[in-house]
Design brief:
The chain has about 120 residues and is mainly α. Helix content is about 75%, strand content about 10%.
């Protein structure tokens, strides 16, 4: 009977550990996606900044290609870029807190990882 309880507890701990790892991987994936999008915004802004304000440019909005001027597009891109930076900061904080939570959980339950 004691072996069944121990085996059950071990399975529960393994399941919790897997959940923690999956959550961390999902957050890391989101961080990567936001970083990539932020870099794309930065590259486009660097390209558009030196151009004349009345020059036409094209922007994809919800899957629709829209013709605008540089003057109209740059402020929107800056706003989006700032928003992405805030989201990235929030995701990094969330990742760190989840990681700390996982470390506390490992210490509390005396979990030793054999293979990562």
């Amino acid at each position: 009977m004691a072996q069944q309880v121990s085996a059950r507890k071990q399975q529960d701990l393994q399941l919790q550990y897997t959940n923690y790892k999956n959550n961390l991987q999902n957050i890391a994936q989101k961080i990567g996606d936001v970083e990539q999008e932020s870099e794309e915004h930065k590259l486009v802004l660097e390209t558009l900044e030196p151009l004349p304000q009345d020059r036409k440019c094209f922007r994809m909005i919800n899957g629709v290609l829209v013709q605008r001027t540089v003057k109209d597009t740059v402020p929107a891109l800056k706003t989006n870029s700032d928003g992405l930076k805030k989201v990235l900061d929030d995701l990094l904080k969330q990742y760190k807190s989840k990681q700390e939570e996982m470390e506390k959980w490992k210490k509390k339950n005396n979990v030793q990882v054999v293979q990562q």
